[in-house]
Amino acid sequence: MQKRRLKMSAIKEKSLKYNLHSWSAQGNLNPKVITKAEGIYFWDEEGKKYYDMSAQLVNSNLGHGNKAIVNAIKDQAEKIPFIGPGFAIDVRSDAAEAIVEASGLEGAKVFFTNAGAESNENAIKIAKQYTGRWKIFSQYRCYHGSSAGAGMLTGEPRHFANEPGPAGFIKYDGPYAYRAPKACKFETEDDVADFYLELLTNQVKYEGPESVAAIFLETVVGSNGILVPPAKYVTGVRDLCTKYGIMMVCDEVMAGWYRTGTCFAFQNFGIKPDLVTFAKGATCGYVPLGGVIVSEPIAKYFDDHKMMCGLTYSAHPMGCAAAVATINEYKNLNIAENVKKQGKVLGELLEDLNKKHACVGEVRYIGLFSAFELVKDKATKEPIVGFNDDPDGLMAKIVGMLVKEGFWTYSHENMIIVAPPLIITEEELREAMAILDKVLDSVDNMIK
Ligand SMILES: Cc1ncc(COP(=O)(O)O)c(C=O)c1O
């Protein structure tokens, strides 16, 4: 045992010596050394077990160790691990076909990338090429990736390092009723939709619709707090885009692949986007793969116009093989049904937490995609703070308490995200949520 510990600690030491870790000052990091992962759980070097209640970065939709995906990757590695993107191979065509079918966008085609940011980079270029316009709208409260273009789509502070960036990136306010401007008095979801649609419409008019190539939205805003838009808002954005010939781009990198119950989140709202970007759940992260689904008119446009996009690893055989296996598994395991069933349980448990705990301001959920806001006072909605910029703050303590109890999650500002693997059972969900309940009891005491 002693020998094993020493060996594992050496892994951490080496990681700190050689690895740069994302979004962090490097000096004070203490990364967990992970030695095993299975289903909705993973284990650290001490043998401690964690409920993976964020499905890693909301991508491990089928949990850890899915044999069908692993075997598909192994088989592809034996067969053709790599061949240039210009060649046609079985898994390349099969993956694209399965994705187009899942999207319900008849006549659509797929340009494959390696991840979410790259998908958005290419969606920007495709929208610009197709429309001949150059301005790109995206929300303030959103994350679309961290590379040069996708980083400028990102509206929240993670885009600061990309500034000033290229011209033409315009930000707008998307629906967020809980923290809407004080003067807003919304009575219905439609009121919320009307208010935010009016803001966006005015902005588009003042920017000059003839210069606007695309309006991006995370169909359901993910890491910025699971903001489920009113249906009228999504259909309103669709209408606005259609009216002015603007491309509606739904970023489904996080919300896609059954996270919200339907394969793609836009399918909850009965609309058809012009472009859809995806990644994460397409392969559950077993190997990287992302892509852009382009609707039929855009696909046809590129029949006789050169599409100016290309990547050495576009439609990588290993990624495509993993995607085919993953999409089959979603169907074989009837994941849509499980999300519907467990999503209902999760919603009820979250509503109970909201009623019970003084520290919970609002809960938001759709399918197995949920978040709640931690507040010092329900009436004033004053957020609990102290995370990235203040590692000793209250939020950091709360996340630490959850981790200590074996509840692994993803947090942002004053929000805790609950988005487990979509294979979770009711028993597992109730066990994990009981841990959360216990920790929130302590938080109630801390804010008294
Ligand atoms: C909605 C959304 N878009 C894009 C991205 C960027 O994806 P990647 O990290 O794979 O580049 C993310 C990552 O979390 C995301 O949540």
Automatic annotation (TrEMBL):
SUPFAM superfamilies: PLP-dependent transferases
Pfam families: Aminotran_3
Residue runs in coiled coils: none
Keyword Transferase: yes
InterPro entries: Aminotrans_3, PyrdxlP-dep_Trfase, PyrdxlP-dep_Trfase_major, PyrdxlP-dep_Trfase_small
Presence of the UniProt keyword Nuclease in the record: no
Protein known as: Aminotransferase class III-fold pyridoxal phosphate-dependent enzyme
Source organism: Hominibacterium faecale
